[in-house]
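In response to reviewer comment 3 from the previous cycle, which asked for concrete evidence that the modeling workflow produces usable outputs, we include below a single protein chain processed end to end. The sequence was submitted unchanged, and the resulting structure tokens are shown without manual editing.
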Amino acid sequence: MERNTEGTTGGTTTLLIVDGANVVGSVPNGWWRDRRGAAERLRDRLAGYADGGVDGVAGAPEIVLVVEGAARGVGSIPGVRVEAAPGSGDDLIAELAREARDRPCVVVTADRALRSRVLAAGARVTGPRTVYGP
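The workflow returned the following structure tokens.
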């Protein structure tokens, strides 16, 4: 996996991993009728954070949106790399957090079990409202 290592915290860009299904599901706006479209809208919204940054994260982060299920066909765009989970999105997010142990990593999710897993891997956790809201 290619990583961006220039940047903001001790010379290392923060990796921001977004739990797409959990974040999209945090707002009852009809997302269940078009899961792929909802994931694309989230991806497009996240692109705005690639340069402008995210509250609580130093500098501009490297953003990875993890999608699963019906959203697997969503592609990457400048500023947001989309990773399609072959199985569980939580498993891929936990793996990415473990692999990022040598750099700052923040995971965006409200899933309690996933929060525990990524905290154990050394990542920080923030809720969906950090990047997505009504």
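Residues 35-52 form the longest helix (18 residues). We consider this sufficient to address the reviewer's concern, and the full set will be provided in the supplementary archive.
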